Amino acid sequence: MSMYVENILEDVKLKNATEPEFVQAVDEVLSALKPVVAQNDAYEKLAVLERMVEPERLITFRVPWVDDAGKIRVNRGYRVQFSSLIGPYKGGLRFHPSVNQSIIKFLGFEQIFKNALTGLPIGGGKGGSDFDPKGKSDSEVMRFCQSFMTELQRHIGQDVDVPAGDIGVGAREIGYLFGQYKRIKDAYEGGVLTGKSVVYGGSLARKEATGYGLIYFMKEMLKANGINSLAGKTVIISGSGNVAIYACEKVQQLGAKVIAMSDSSGCIYDKDGIDLDTIKKIKEVERGRIKDYLHTNPFAEYKENSKGYSPIWSIKADIALPCATQNELNLEDAKSLVNNGVIAIGEGANMPTSKEAIEYFQAHNVLFAPAKAANAGGVATSAIEMSQNSMRFYYTFEEVDKKLESIMKNIFSSCKSAAEKYQLGNNYVAGANIAAFTKLAEAMIEQGIV
After folding, report:
1. Catalytic residues
2. What is the pLDDT of residues 13-51, one digit of tens each?
C-alpha cells in the first residue's frame, strides 16, 4: 500500500514543528483519508494532499492602538486565506490571548472542510488577534477594531474573503470592524462581513445558528442510531458563549434538561435545569462570570476550574456538548464521561476533543458528532447572510431556521453515506473528512495546478 498519506503527514510535522494545533488538525483529517487515497492514484500523482495542507496565503500584521489611559498598545493580527477552491475565503475572526499562527492555521484548515460540507459555495479562511476584549471598555475595543481593520481591509472583499465572528468577536466587534471598512472603502459592501446586526444587513437567526445547528445534527445522529428523541435526556454544555447558549436553548425546546454550563473560571451545576435567561443576562448583557448565576439561583453549585481542568466533565449526563474552545476535553475527561454513562458527544467548538479522547469514545460505542460537521450551522447561515446581502433582501427567522435545519440534515447524511461507503460504520469523524475531501479534491483537480 502506498505510503503517500504517511509521507505527507511527516512532512507537515517537520515543516510545522512549532504549530501543534495545526499538526493535530491535519493528522485527524489525513488519518481518515487513507482508504480514499488508496483507491485513487490521481491524488498522489497530482499532489492533492500537498496542496491542500498548505495555505494559499498567510498574512501577519501589527495592530497598534491607544488605551483609555493614553498608553500605546501593540497586538498581532492574522488572516489565513487557506482555500478558495469552491468560493471566496470564509471564516471567523478570533480575539483571544491564546491566538497564534498555529491556532489560526488549524482553524483555517478545519474551515475548508466545514464549509465544503455545507454544500454552499464558500472557501476556507480564518483570522484574529491576541487582543483580549475582556475587561476593555467599548472605546478601547472600538479603537482596536478600527486599527485591525485598517490593515485587514487590504486583503478582504465580498467576492474575495468574508470574515465573521468567533471567540471574542461578537456583534459589537463586527459593528466596529464594518464601520471602519465602510469608511475606508467609501462604499457599502454589505457582504464583506457576516454576523452583522440585522439593522444594517445581518441575518435573522445568525446568532442562534451554530448552537441550533449543532442540535439539529445531534438529532439526526441520534435518530440514525435508534434514539428518536432528546426529550428526557440530561445534557452538559461547556462554555457559555454564543454557541453554548443557543445549543442550550434548542435542547431545552426539545425537552432535554441542561444541568451544567461553564466558562474559563468554572462551571455551574443545577440539578433542576439551567435557567437560561439568567445565563443570557450574565453573558450577553452584563459580560459577567458564570459564578454570578448563584446570585439568583442559590441552590445551584459552582465548581471552580483547577490547573486547566474543568470539573464539568465529571458530572453525570446522557449527552455532552463541548462548546468552549479547542482541546478542552482530553482522555481522562473521556474516561470520566464514559464511566458516567454518556451516550453521545457533540462538538460545538472547533476541535475541542483530543484525538485520544475521540478514539476512546469510539472504542466504547459513544456516538460522536465532529465539529467540522456538527458546528457548521454558523458558517452556513453566514453564507445565507451573504446571499441576502447580494439580493438586498431579508429572509424571516423561520425561513432561515428552516434552511439551517435542512442544511444540517444534509451534512449528517453526507457524513453517514461516506462512512458507510468505506465500511466505517457510524464513524462520523471519518465520514465528515471523507465527504468534504472528495468534493474539494475534485475541484482542485479540475482547476489545474494553481
Report:
1. 126
2. 999 999 999 999 999 999 999 999 999 999 999 999 999
Residue 163 has φ and ψ, to the nearest 5°, of -75, 165
Task: Please tell me the chain's helix, strand, coil percentages from 3-state DSSP, rounded to the nearest 5.
Answer: 50, 15, 35
Cell (9 digits) for 1: 500500500
Report which of 365, 316, 322 is spatially closest to residue 341, judged by C-alpha positions.
316
Residues of the chain with pLDDT under 50: 1
Nearest to 266 by CA among 212, 309, 227: 309
Nearest to 431 by CA among 446, 412, 445, 444: 412
In this predicted structure, what is the pLDDT of residue 368? 98
Q: Which of 315, 314, 312, 319 is nearest to 231 (CA)?
A: 319
Domain boundaries defined on the chain: 55-188, 209-374
Q: Are 408 and 432 in contact (CB under 8 A)?
A: no
C-alpha cell at 137: 471598555
Q: Please tell me the distance from the alpha carbon of residue 440 to that of residue 118, in angstroms, as a whole number.
A: 12
Specify the CATH number of the domain 209-374: 3.40.50.720
Q: Look up the pTM and report it.
A: 0.93
Starting at the earlier edge strand, list the strands of the sheet with 57-66. Answer: 57-66, 72-83, 124-129, 89-95, 161-164
Residue 352 and residue 330: Cα distance in Å, rounded?
A: 9
CA torsion sign for 395, 94, 430, 428 is: negative
The pLDDT assigned to 303 comes to 94
Amino acid at 400: V
Quote the CA–CA distance of 268 and 288 in Å, as a whole number: 14
pLDDT in tens, 215-228: 999 999 999 999 99
Using only C-alpha atoms, the chain has a radius of gyration, in whole angstroms, of 21
Distance of alpha carbon 117 from alpha carbon 206, whole angstroms: 18
Indicate the DSSP class of residue 317: -
Extract the C-alpha cell encoding 130. Answer: 491576541
Which homologous superfamily is 55-188 in? Leucine Dehydrogenase, chain A, domain 1 (3.40.50.10860)
| CA–CA distance, 446 with 206 (Å, rounded to integer) | 33
- Decide whether 55-188 matches 209-374 in CATH topology: yes
